[in-house]
Amino acid sequence: MRLARAEGLAVKLLVPKLLYPIAERIYADFFASLRQCAVVEQSHQGQLHKIIRMWVDVPAGFASLAKSGANPFTPDEVLDTLRAMTAAASASAGKGAAK
């Protein structure tokens, strides 16, 4: 979060204490203020991402950053994803403004 904010990226973090059953109201309130979101999880199949999509209305830019194995995500991996998502959103917004 510190690295992303230092680069001027607007980021928020939700760390669930319970993965299932889904706390629908908590997720819905959190997603209500977002245009895009990355679910970062140490799971090859992105299980949390799929479960959330089943139970909660999610932002259009709802992406999964999933990874299997014993090596956790590095801050740079997450930051690169946030940069890419921000760049894609900016490019998309620019195309909409050009119409």
From TrEMBL:
Gene3D superfamilies: 3.40.50.920. It comes from the Bacteria. SUPFAM superfamilies: TK C-terminal domain-like (SSF52922). InterPro entries: Transketo_C/PFOR_II. This is 627aa long 2-oxoacid--ferredoxin oxidoreductasealpha subunit. It comes from Opitutus terrae (strain DSM 11246 / JCM 15787 / PB90-1). The lineage of its organism: Bacteria, Pseudomonadati, Verrucomicrobiota, Opitutia, Opitutales.
